[in-house]
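Researcher: Batch entry, complex prediction.
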Amino acid sequence: MSQKGRVIDLYKTLLHLGKDWPKGYDFFRDRLKKAFLKNKDVSDPEQIEKMIKHGEYVKKEIEALYMLKKYRTLKRRYEL
Amino acid sequence: MSRVLVGVKRVIDYAVKIRVKPDKTGVVTDGVKHSMNPFDEIAVEEAVRMKEKKIASELIAVSCGPAQSQETIRTALAMGIDRGIHVEVSAAELNTLQPIHVSKIIAKIAQDEKVDLVIVGKQAIDDDCNQTAQMTAAILDWPQAAFASKIEKAGDELTVTREIDGGLEVIKVKSPAVISADLRLNEPRYATLPNIMKAKKKPIKKVTPKDLGIDISPRIEILSVADPPTRQAGAILPDVDALVAKLKEGGHI
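Model: Structure tokens for the complex:
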């Protein structure tokens, strides 16, 4: 996949993850869009690569956050 | 290599605040976010890991419920299950559908599909019954390993670590068996976008309890559903005498 394709893919994946965001999808989408737009003029492939890596990291963090939130809620509810 | 059947239930999302209907017949479900029962997610994850370790050959997910239950099956398919079976139960029938009915359905499907292992979540977060796995094992006359926190396979035997009061119990069961997943069995994966797309192409078979020859006529009648009592506000007392007087008044001493 081209670098551009990968950026779009990352954006879509993050948008998808945002649907479960605790503060709501709109909150997440606004922030996400701002974060991507801030770097829209970057053209150095190496730097873009770095940013994609960071995006992948954020993706993993969000997944971990959701998992932990669910785990903690269940633990609190069922293990007193 | 074995075939694994996983039971998944569609429940109100764990993060949603449950509201009781004013007429006390049940809880509000219209327009409320639903998702897969978290314990069933753990069961699905365990089955998918078995397939990745090449212990399992085919994974089947089964869900009993209205048409929207298909979404729950799709989630399971997106996590890595191969195909789904949707047992259609109308929303009205669902209110009185109990673990006894569900376990009969699962037992029948387990026999029809010739599965070697049934994995379900230990309980659903809506009715908290915690009966389906045990009843399914009883109906099939298979060994059961409820509240599993670790599953290891050796030959046609499974070594299961169970979470019991105050500790862990390690048992050995022969396949075919029924396992129910506890909270610490694994950490379920998040269904990725591409996998959700791919899951749309996986087959879901639709059957009715009647097709399976299972009677789901109600065995209970729901009389009333109520909120748990709200906690009373605390009070700060000036001294010990006041506290003793208050406790006596409440009949605690």
